[in-house]
Structure prediction request, 215 residues.
Amino acid sequence: MTPTREQMRAWFDTFNRQYFNGELPLPRLALGNSRTRLGSMSCRRRRTLTGWRLSDFAIRLSTYYDCTEREMQTVLLHEMIHYYIAWKGMRDDAPHGSVFRSIMNRLNTRHGWDISVSASMRGRKTAAPHNDRRPRLVLALENSRGECFLTVVNPRYAAQLKSRLKNAADATQRAWFVSTDPFFSDFTTVRSLRARKVKREVFDEKIACGTMVDI
Prediction:
């Protein structure tokens, strides 16, 4: 199945009440197309006078693989455990250490879940392709060796990225454009200079079909 953010929100609210005493504030919930992981929890870490402060929590589920509703919910619970540990300021001895495993084992034993420390992507069936035509801001780059790269950029970081490009001596061609091509649906939306290498014909085609913009 491919959940919506509304379904994600409903699952989060239910699990928060049932398993975390309703203590977790709603984080940013998002869907992505990661091929390397089924889910992730992230946050911003800032140093203050009293120590480290965590903020901007986000949980993301990948829709790249064909997962059942139960599997998606299990991944969400895995990430909610990470979120709970971080939000409560609990210290663990590893990313999936004794604190994480204690909560995981409680949910598995008492509530019948099958949460695991990690999940293998090997042999997983990919989800059916979907016609995702959301507009995306794309940066096209070519280096001095003629290699071509495309990346989808978070619009809020476009100006910052453009400024960094001034010092990127090997970027001989730079083009910014908006595209609704489903080709870009599995690209990670970046805030830093990371791009995917593509063939010349793909590079030229995507630029030609995009709407050029000034950043």
